[in-house]
């Protein structure tokens, strides 16, 4: 029995190191020391008779045997977590650690203000929320769920469901409105100061539709940033016209801090998908969070 428990501990340590890509980060997550983590990996390799991790002074990487062992043990640990969650959920509230990754602005402006509702409803769920505009590897990094504008690829092992959608709005501060008397069409936008979100080298485009008429422009930004909060603050200060998501600006429009520009010209809505590793029915905590997200979007739409 002691040997079985020891083997399970070694597997957990190995999976944490593989997911974190670092002995130091793995030790931090496990509440252990780097030397203890290193010793556990050595013991596991000795038990298996093969090297699982290439180690240098600067980095670690999995060997072929390590990748094969990780794939198998990940399934074992996932199955074990699912069984524990199902057993626990039959006795009471969903519980356990739930790791979620969300785009930065969506997490800051839309999700974070609502999390008190979720944590009070499910006090036994520990939420680890990572805000990042890059696509994270759900399986490799141990995330339970991600919010994305695209569904999971058809050939992947991930699941996805659309939970809502967001709309982009053209807005400006009242202090900037004096310069907008002549603005009546999106085609005129480049004659004004535009504030643009720019994350990569892909050219930015803004698409508009009014009835049967459609216009797409390539904005020439007066100011661009890869951070929506910076654009939001610049817009509030009267720096120009920005194209921002409704969840960033709805309250400020209602309060009169921002004014919607060209409201008759609609921009395409952007869907939002919950992407996750396992079926919701197999994880009470995942199903609870998914339902919370869906309910939040539904209440927003009313």
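^ structure tokens above, recovered residues below v
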């Amino acid at each position: 029995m002691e040997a079985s428990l020891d083997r399970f501990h070694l597997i957990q340590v190995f999976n944490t190191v593989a997911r974190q890509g670092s002995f130091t980060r793995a030790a931090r997550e496990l509440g252990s020391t780097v030397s203890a983590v290193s010793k556990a990996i050595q013991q596991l390799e000795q038990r298996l008779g093969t090297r699982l991790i290439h180690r240098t002074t600067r980095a670690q990487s999995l060997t072929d045997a390590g990748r094969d062992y990780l794939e198998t043990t990940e399934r074992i640990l996932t199955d074990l977590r699912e069984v524990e969650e199902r057993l626990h959920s039959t006795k009471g509230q969903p519980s356990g650690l739930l790791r979620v990754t969300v785009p930065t602005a969506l997490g800051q402006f839309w999700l974070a203000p609502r999390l008190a509702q979720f944590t009070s409803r499910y006090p036994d769920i520990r939420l680890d929320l990572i805000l990042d505009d890059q696509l994270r590897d759900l399986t490799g990094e141990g995330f339970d769920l991600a919010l994305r504008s695209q569904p999971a690829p058809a050939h992947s092992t991930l699941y996805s469901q659309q939970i809502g959608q967001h709309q982009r709005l053209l807005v400006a501060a009242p202090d900037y409105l004096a310069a907008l008397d002549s603005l009546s069409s999106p085609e005129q936008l480049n004659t004004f100061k535009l504030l643009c979100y720019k994350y990569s080298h892909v050219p930015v485009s803004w698409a508009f539709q009014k009835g049967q008429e459609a216009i797409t422009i390539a904005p020439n930004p007066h100011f661009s940033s890869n951070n929506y909060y910076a654009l939001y603050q610049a817009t509030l200060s009267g720096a120009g016209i920005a194209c921002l998501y409704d969840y960033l600006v709805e309250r400020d429009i209602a309060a009169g801090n921002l004014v919607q520009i060209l409201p008759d010209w609609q921009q395409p809505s952007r869907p939002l998908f919950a992407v996750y590793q396992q079926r919701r029915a197999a994880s009470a905590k995942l199903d609870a969070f998914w339902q919370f997200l869906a309910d939040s979007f539904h209440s927003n739409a009313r």
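The longest strand covers residues 159-166.
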